[in-house]
Design a protein that fits this description.
The protein has about 325 residues and is of the alpha+beta class. It folds into 3 domains: about 70 residues, 30s Ribosomal Protein S18, CATH 4.10.640; about 40 residues, Double Stranded RNA Binding Domain, CATH 3.30.160; about 180 residues. The protein contains 9 helices and 9 strands. α7 packs antiparallel against α8 and α8 runs antiparallel to α9. It is elongated, with a radius of gyration of 30 Å.
Length: about 325
């Protein structure tokens, strides 16, 4: 199997980048390979290929212009074969009833009652894969996922900005009140901070999921590109099913999170606070205003406004 350079492995998501010269690797050198000899089943750099050609005149190595003749990289093969649930097991079966790839543990634990479980090696004899179409679909999903990620990250910055602006309003209001309001002020700031934390946590969760799905789809796309035009039906079948499952998962997430949400934290001072200080629950009211922007077409945009209200109270307050 082909070996990867250490830089390739360290990048994590870039699972398909380069191959190492087999001869140089034996000498503990990381040299990029430029040729692959099918007879030797080895890779060679520009320097080592000269010696190889002198020793094996009848061998016909393939240069980078013919990388379709190069083997599937071991890291790509391992990535596709690995079961997502039982990471130590390889995918060897396919359940037609659930349209799921299975390892031995999956078949035993989740598909014991299924009657249509087939070995992948048998399944690929009667079913073809459409890797090129899958690559296009993954590319589209990656673009949407990246856009959604950027939107959620912008929401985090926006809500922080609105928080900073409204904090100034709170401080201006506080200067009109005497020192006895210290406890109420702290309660108000704490409530607003909690609101900020909850809102940011919600967006951060979406951002993290965007990043995870984006990385998984990117890895899958690169693995598929390495498989193109290579006679590895089993891997192609696995890649096809993994891709479709990941696309379905991503589309579900995109559909659920497609609305571009901007949440505004707002502090509304109570104009009667000085006169009715003893009866007031806090410095004012904190709420978050959501602006939902749905854009189906560049010339067709509509906006929906929504607002959630949070009452600020202290423990000594009683309901009237």
């Amino acid at each position: 199997m082909a070996n990867f350079s250490q830089a390739t492995i360290d990048k994590g998501s870039d699972i398909v980048q380069d191959f190492l010269c087999s001869t140089c690797e034996d000498k503990k050198l990381d040299t990029t390979a430029d040729f692959y000899c099918e007879s030797c089943v080895k890779f060679y750099c520009e320097i080592c290929i000269n010696m190889h050609s002198q020793l094996f005149t009848k061998h016909a190595p393939f240069g980078r212009g013919y990388m379709k003749k190069w083997p599937v990289a071991k890291k790509v093969e391992d990535f596709l074969l690995k079961c997502d649930v039982h990471t130590e097991e390889n995918l060897t079966m396919f359940c037609d009833e659930h349209s799921e790839l299975c390892c031995t543990n999956c078949a035993l634990l989740n598909h014991r009652q299924c009657k249509r479980i087939t070995l992948i090696s048998d399944k690929v004899k009667s079913q073809s894969s459409h890797l090129q179409k899958l690559t296009v679909s993954i590319k589209k999903i990656l673009k949407k996922m990246k856009k959604l990620q950027e939107n959620k990250e912008a929401c985090i910055d926006f809500v922080q900005s609105s928080y900073d602006e409204q904090l100034h309003t709170i401080q201006e209001t506080r200067r009109k009140i005497n020192a006895t309001l210290d406890t109420i002020e702290q309660k108000t700031l704490t409530e607003m901070k909690d609101t900020l934390t909850k809102l940011q946590a919600s967006f951060k969760s979406d951002v993290d999921k965007c990043i995870r799905l984006w990385e998984e789809l990117k890895q899958l796309r690169e693995a598929i590109q390495d498989l193109n035009d290579k006679s590895r039906l089993g891997l192609s079948f696995i890649a096809n099913n993994k891709g479709e499952a990941k696309i379905k998962q991503s589309e579900t997430f995109l559909k659920k999170s497609s609305l571009q949400v901007k949440v505004l934290i707002r502090f509304q001072p109570n104009s009667d606070i000085v006169q009715y200080l003893s009866k007031l629950p806090g410095l004012g009211r904190i709420d978050s205003t959501q602006t939902l922007m749905v854009q189906e077409h560049p010339n067709n945009v509509f906006t929906v406004q929504g607002k959630s209200v949070h009452n600020v109270r202290i423990s000594s307050d009683s309901d009237e």
